[in-house]
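The protein record quoted in full:

***
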Amino acid sequence: MRKLLIGANLALLIAFPIAWFAPLMRAGFLPLFSLSEISVISGLQSLWGSDVFLALMVTIFALFAPYLKTMGLALIHFNLLSDKLLPVLAWLGKLAMADVFLIALYIVVAKGVGIGKLETAWGLYLFSVCIIASIAISALTPRILPPAKQG
C-alpha cells in the first residue's frame, strides 16, 4: 500500500499541471456563437486583467495550495519532512477543494442566467479527481508512516 500511495501522490505532480491547462468548461454567448474553452490558466489570465485580488485568490487555491500539499506529502513519504505538518497539508487540501466548489457554483449561476451556453468539460473532472485523490492520500498517509515517525 505504501508504494501505491507514494506513486499516486507523485502522479499528482504531473496530473495537476495537466488539469490546469485542460478545458474546465466551454462557454458561448447566445446560441449563434461558437463555444470557447476555459481552463484554470486561461481563466486566471482573464482575471489578472480585471480583478487582481480574485486572481490572486484563485492562484493560491487552484495552483499553489494543491501543488504545495502534494510536494509536502512527497517529502513526508520520503522522510524529508516531519509528519507533524500533516494537519497543515490537510488544510491546504481544503483550500484547493474550495476552488472546485467555486467553479461548480459559477457553472450553476451561468446556466441559470440562460443568456449563453455553458458545458462542463473533461478538465473539470480531472481537476476534481486530483483534489479528491490528494485529500485521500493525505488521509491515508499516517497509516503508511513507520512507527517511529508516528507521534
